Amino acid sequence: MAIEVSVVSTHKELRKFIHLPAEIHKGHKTWLPNIYMDEWNFFNPQKNHAFSFSDTLLLLASKNGKVVGRIMGIINRRYNELSKEKNARWGYLECYDDQEVAHALLSAVENWAKEKGMVKIIGPYGFSDKDPQGLLIEGFDYSPLISSACNFPYLVDIVINEGYTKEVDCMVYKFRLTDQLPEIYQRISKRIFSQNGFEVIEFKKRKDFKPYIIPILSLMNETYSHLYGYLPMDEKEMNDFAKRYMSIVDPRFVKAVRLGNRILAFMIALPHMSAGIQKSKGHLFPFGIFQILRAAKKTQQLDLMLGAVHPDYQGLGIEVLMALKLFDSMTASGFKEIEIHLMLETNTKVLAEMKHADAKLHKRFRVFQKSLD
């Protein structure tokens, strides 16, 4: 049966693109839908600033008139210029267990990238590392986190069959509060407080946290700039990022460290709300928002989404200060465990901390690559 690949160019076609995953993942118990309101904003060049510095291609694959697959091609011109690369990306690949459909979609993006002078393609990857990245390759039975991939195992085999090999892995760890942190952490905390004058900032209301958003995201630019795939955010992107997530931030689980008026480090965690998003099926209205908030109140798991320590102050134990304060807040609020979001396998400092804390490897995601020469 012939496979037709077409460019998404109308509102109706974009609707099919956005809603296709729900059809493919029917019956997939651990699948987490995206919030559709966010999806419409994300794929709208008028609302997503990343389109302004990227070439993009959205494709649908059809068989016998039925949409059976989708993919997005991205060339992030700004990132390529900064990193001196000629790389394209594919992301948001969804299809049934059908190698021919995947081949048609991936080949179309690869050919598009070659025509634009690219020599390598990676995926799955979005505009930046703040979008979902990689395919899940370990941990299929566990509850997913927001902003992370949620795929069937067959998709990994399909991508490998298309000639893709490993580019880099990202890991997720889990730590239970019943586990004891090594005593050395307590000693480090006391030493830092007494010798350096660092101050841990805690928040009770979102309005108290709001003035710190831009300083925190600016710190991300300073801290993450050397990490794979990271593209520094400009002020518009910072504001867009803040608007996207501010409504779900629980200020109790935001910690920062300052020295004088300077922010040196931060951690941002969220109550695990995946069960509520699954119940809402990605719709906030009329009742979805209440299902999500109810799940956030009932959960005993916290998800650590972001964290950074300024490069000049790493290795001093500042992250220990924040972690101990975060664990205190978790205990006071009845949380039992924390899942620590995607960490690059190349981030040896953070991985060493996971080992010292005896955190357990929970999930693994893989970004793939292929030469276009």
Topology record:
Blueprint lengths: L2 E5 L3 H14 L11 H7 L11 E10 L2 E11 H7 L3 E9 L3 H17 L4 E4 L11 E4 L14 H9 L3 E12 L6 H14 L2 E4 L3 H4 L3 H12 L10 H11 L8 E6 L2 E10 L2 H7 L7 H11 L2 E9 L8 H16 L3 E8 L3 H9 L3 E12 L2
Parallel strand pairs: 4-5, 11-12
Antiparallel strand pairs: 1-2, 2-3, 3-4, 5-13, 6-13, 7-12, 7-13, 8-9, 9-10, 10-11
Provide structural commentary.
With 373 residues, this protein is of the alpha+beta class. A hairpin with a 2-residue loop joins strand 2 (54-63) and strand 3. The protein is 37% helix and 28% strand. The chain is built from 13 helices and 13 strands. It has helices spanning 11-24, 36-42, 77-83, 99-115, 153-161, 183-196, 206-209, 213-224, 235-245, 274-280, 288-298, 318-333, 348-356; strands spanning 3-7, 54-63, 66-76, 87-95, 120-123, 135-138, 165-176, 199-202, 254-259, 262-271, 301-309, 337-344, 360-371. Strands 1, 2, 3, 4, 5, 6, 7, 8, 9, 10, 11, 12 and 13 form a 13-stranded mixed beta sheet that branches. The radius of gyration is 21 Å and the shape is globular. It has two domains: 3-171, Gcn5-related N-acetyltransferase (GNAT) (Aminopeptidase, 3-Layer(aba) Sandwich), CATH 3.40.630; 179-335, 3-Layer(aba) Sandwich (Aminopeptidase).
